[in-house]
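[Primary structure, fold]
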Amino acid sequence: MTSWLLDGLVVFMLLATAVSVLASRSLFRAVVMFIAFGMLMALAWVRLQAPDIALAEAAIGAGLTGVLLLDAVAHFRRGPDKERGGAS
């Protein structure tokens, strides 16, 4: 009985974070919620007894992609001129 409750909670949290990513007006918040979604997805894979896929999801889906998206948000906020020293 408790495993069904845990699985239902994970599904609900996955849906809530997915909607939060799509509805967010802040890029930074959307990326952070995307990382949280990836970690919850890794937990879902563990619950489905697929630890290899869970590890890949945590490392690539949440970790690497999250870091790359955070770097892209930082570059986007900085603007194209500031990175090249102000000359265009």
